[in-house]
Design goal:
The complex is a heterodimer. Chain A is an alpha/beta fold. Chain A has a single domain, classed as 3-Layer(aba) Sandwich (Rossmann fold), CATH 3.40.50. In chain A, helix 1 packs across helix 2. In chain A, the strands form 2 sheets. Chain A has a 6-stranded mixed beta sheet with strand order 4-3-2-5-6-7, with helices on both faces. Chain A contains 5 helices and 9 strands, in the order E-H-E-H-E-H-E-E-H-E-E-E-E-H. Chain A is about 25% helix and about 30% strand. The radius of gyration of chain A is 17 Å and the shape is globular. By secondary structure, chain B is an alpha+beta fold. Chain B has a single domain, classed as Endonuclease, Chain A, CATH 3.40.960. The longest helix of chain B has 13 residues. Chain B is globular and about 50 Å long. The two termini of chain B are about 30 Å apart. Classes of the chains: A alpha/beta, B alpha+beta. Chains A and B meet through helix 4 and strand 6 of A and helix 1 and helix 3 of B.
Chain lengths: ~190, ~190
């Protein structure tokens, strides 16, 4: 792994520009507003990667919105070895029973985390549960998931930016870019 | 749109029992995949079914295929192929044959590049070499397997060398107990 992080040099290609993101988020917001017309909606952001996406999305949705945040441990993270099980690091702050819930994800690849969350949140008996993701990488899918709202379907490349990280870096990029392989090829 | 629109892989996740009996994995990458599935509370079975894919003129099975994992809540098989790409040709051929004969089964092939991407995602890229290819083969001494006809055979398509192929068979490591019990033994407790 490179010793230093360079937000410009480490990006091999801009996959989705800032303008493209904002335009698509506006389209998603309009579609979601129409689908939930006359209803209230609870947006659930899955930390940390989906935070920028939800922040932008919620501001283009025109129906009443409540937001909540969740964070789950990731395989390989610091908590993995101790328990061997996914853990809810931050749970919802309010009940979603009887609520219309929309999970906001930054990216869906294997679907393992989202599959877990769907089961977990489904147990809280919301009135409805839908999925919205900025990026979908279907080539990596292990668990099939019906995604209701997709920003962009992307090829099988390691991407960072607009919330997505590598080693907690690059989240603050305003676009989605492909990380140069040499940045992580010597990792370890 | 209701919850029913999202087929959920099993009930709300819960912690598995502490004592998890693990089967003897043939490859380190399979053990790692099992840990990942455990982590996300996805139930799995290791090589529970054998699918005959080639018969001789006498009707005896001469070649079969046993996918590495079956995820019962998702009804999908998972086959790990972390060997070098040039070595997977034979497995690709067997998979094509499997899909021809058993078109209704869902199987995902996990190549070396897929495993590498998964390890990168989970920050374990440094382990890829030791978990992949020939280095990852642990070659444990495995108990002699017996073959038991599956209770719920997968719908089979027409076979070129048989009017209709026999149903897949379940593998278990033990010969005692009822069929249901034996199948349960082959499934890790979680």
């Amino acid at each position: 792994m490179k010793a230093t992080v360079d937000l410009v040099e480490d990006i091999g290609e801009v996959l989705v520009t800032e303008n493209q993101i904002q335009a698509r988020v506006a389209e998603l917001g309009a579609q979601i507003s129409a689908d939930y017309a006359g209803r209230k909606l609870t947006l659930v952001s899955v930390l940390k990667g989906s935070l920028p996406f939800m922040a932008d999305l919620m501001r283009v949705i025109t129906v009443p919105v409540r937001i909540d945040l969740m964070e789950v441990s990731s395989y390989g993270g610091a908590t993995t070895e101790s328990s061997g099980l996914v853990r809810i690091l931050k749970d919802l702050s309010a009940s979603i029973e009887g609520e219309d819930v929309l999970i906001c994800e930054d990216i869906i690849d294997t679907g393992l985390t989202l599959n877990y969350l769907i089961r977990y949140l489904g147990g809280k008996k919301p009135a409805s549960l839908r999925i919205c993701t900025l990026l979908d990488k279907p080539a990596r899918r292990l668990v099939e998931i019906n995604v209701d709202y997709t920003g962009f379907t992307i090829p099988d490349q390691f991407v960072v930016g607009y919330g997505l990280d590598y080693n907690e870096h690059y989240r603050n990029l305003r676009f989605v870019g492909v990380l140069r392989p040499e940045v992580y090829s010597s990792a370890g | 749109m209701t919850l029913e629109d999202h087929p959920i892989a099993g009930p709300a996740p819960s912690a598995p029992p502490g004592d998890i009996t693990r089967p003897p994995f043939a490859h380190a990458s399979e053990a790692e995949m099992a840990r990942i599935l455990d982590f996300y509370a996805v139930r799995w079975e290791y090589e529970p079914h054998v699918f005959p894919i080639l018969w001789n003129l006498q009707g005896s099975v001469v070649e079969s295929f046993s996918p590495d994992f079956y995820l019962p809540d998702l009804d999908v098989y998972l086959e790990m192929t972390t060997l070098k790409q040039r070595l997977v040709r034979k497995k690709n051929r067997k998979l094509r044959r499997l899909k021809e004969l058993y078109p209704s089964i869902r199987i995902k092939l996990f190549y070396a590049r897929d495993f590498r991407a998964l390890m990168l995602k989970y920050g374990k890229l440094a382990l890829v070499e030791s978990l992949s290819g020939s280095l990852g083969q642990v070659m444990p001494e495995r108990p002699e397997e017996i073959l038991v006809v599956a209770e719920e055979p997968v719908a089979a398509g027409s076979a070129p060398d048989a009017a209709s192929p026999p149903p897949p068979v379940s593998t278990t490591a033990r010969a005692s107990g009822s069929r249901r019990a034996r199948r349960a033994e082959a499934r890790p407790t979680r």
